[in-house]
Amino acid sequence: MTKAYLEITMFVSNANRPAAAGVYNKYKKPFLDEIKGATSKELLIREEDVQVLHGFTSADEASAYLKTDLFNNDVVKELSPLFDKAPEIKIYSVA
After folding, report:
1. pTM, whole model, 2 decimals?
2. Buried b vs exposed e over 35-47: b needs ≥16 C-beta within 10 Å?
3. What one-character DSSP code corresponds to residue 37?
4. CA 40 to CA 54: how far, in whole Å?
């Protein structure tokens, strides 16, 4: 059961969005299979930004994901060149 969400808002130009979506698709399954407490991962697209909404069983697990090799050595490494400015990262608990 999802009890927390990690929301990462990325500012990516239209030209770079297909590449960003490719990174999302590449790492969705490893995220769901390997990250403790992961329950879901959704890509949300708006005109002004792109968000990835990660579901977790706890806020602590959402926070811990930000310190994993998968996040830092794979996802961030591949996405960073696509950013127009630094992403915004927020963790929410479900009431």
Report:
1. 0.94
2. bebbbebeeeeee
3. T
4. 6
Which tokens in the block code for residue 41? 């991962």
Looking at residue 62, its pLDDT comes to 98
Spatial contact of 76 and 67, defined as CB atoms under 8 Å apart:
no
| Inter-CA distances, 88 with 52, 72, 95, Å | 11, 15, 22
Domain count of the fold of the chain: 1
Amino acid at 4: A
Q: In CATH, what number is assigned to the domain containing residue 25? A: 3.30.70.100
With residue 67 as reference, give the H or E element that holds it: none
Residue 29, token pair as written in the block: 């399954």
